[in-house]
C-alpha cells in the first residue's frame, strides 16, 4: 500500500506553509476575526464598564485585525509544539525558560485579550443542549 500524498495545487514539493494554507485559508482567518470581534463586542456591551478596573482587558479591547489574527494563530501553533509550564512562560524573560518567539510576534496582554474572546462559531446559531437537534461540536464544526 503506497502512502497518501497530499496534493497542493501548483506544487510538486509543497512547503509547510503551502500545506498550512490548505487548511487555514485567508477566508477562514477573516471569518475568525469577524466572529471574535462580534463576540468581544457582545461581552463588552453587556458589562458595566465603569465598574471595571482600569486594567481590565474589557476596557482595553480594540478590534482584532487580520494580521493580529494570523499572529495569534501562529502563537497558538507554537504553543502546541513547544511545551512550557504555564501560558505566561512563553513571554517570560527568565533565563531558564526564555524564548523570544512569542514576544517578538505579539505582546502577552494582547494575546491573552484575543484568547479571551476568540470565537470560530456564532453563539447565536448554536442550539441549546436540551434541543433534540443539538450538535455537541457546533462550536468547532466550522473548522472540521
TrEMBL record:
Task: List, alphabetically, the Pfam families matched.
Answer: DDE_Tnp_1_7
Q: Which InterPro entries does UniProt cross-reference here?
A: PGBD
- Record's superkingdom? Eukaryota
Q: Domain (PiggyBac transposable element-derived protein): give its ranges.
A: 15-144
Q: What is this protein called?
A: PiggyBac transposable element-derived protein domain-containing protein
Q: Which organism is it from?
A: Elysia crispata (lettuce slug)
Name the lineage: Eukaryota, Metazoa, Spiralia, Lophotrochozoa, Mollusca
Amino acid at each position: 500500500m503506497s502512502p497518501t500524498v497530499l496534493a497542493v495545487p501548483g506544487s510538486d514539493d509543497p512547503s509547510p506553509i503551502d500545506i498550512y494554507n490548505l487548511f487555514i485559508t485567508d477566508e477562514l482567518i477573516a471569518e475568525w476575526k469577524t466572529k471574535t470581534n462580534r463576540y468581544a463586542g457582545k461581552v463588552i456591551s453587556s458589562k458595566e464598564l465603569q465598574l471595571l478596573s482600569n486594567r481590565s482587558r474589557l476596557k482595553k479591547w480594540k478590534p482584532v485585525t487580520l494580521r493580529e489574527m494570523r499572529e495569534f494563530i501562529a502563537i497558538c501553533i507554537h504553543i502546541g509544539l513547544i511545551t512550557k509550564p504555564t501560558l505566561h512562560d512563553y513571554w517570560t524573560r527568565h533565563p531558564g525558560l526564555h524564548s523570544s518567539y512569542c514576544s517578538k510576534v505579539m505582546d502577552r496582554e494582547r494575546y491573552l485579550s484575543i484568547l479571551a474572546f476568540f470565537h470560530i462559531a456564532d453563539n447565536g446559531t448554536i442550539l441549546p443542549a436540551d434541543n433534540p437537534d443539538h450538535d455537541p461540536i457546533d462550536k468547532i464544526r466550522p473548522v472540521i
